[in-house]
Amino acid sequence: MADTMTQIKFTIETDIVSSFKTQCASDGVSMTSVIRQWMNSQRPTKEVRLKTLTRPQRRKAVTVIVGLLNEVLEMESQYRDSIPEQFTQRYEMSDQTCEQLAEAISSLEEAF
Prior knowledge:
By secondary structure, the chain is mainly alpha-helical. The protein has helices spanning 14-27, 31-42, 55-81, 88-111.
């Protein structure tokens, strides 16, 4: 198998980057190896082939996705409801996320 090279650019707050660099240095590992290991662990282990699925199988897959989105919506709603009053910007962002998730769920349910 040919070895391929991928270049990734992260835009993160400087304190997070410096903390990451410090931790890698103290552990005696390179940042590249840590990121590569993380990327390899995040890759899906099984390829999804939706083209070969029948309509009932696709409908079942969409139902599973809708269920997962509902769980995410519920968690985001709980997070939103636990935000103190002084953090109105966080509340508004979370509320917008909830609205968009609900819209996505509604669209998927209408489609199937």
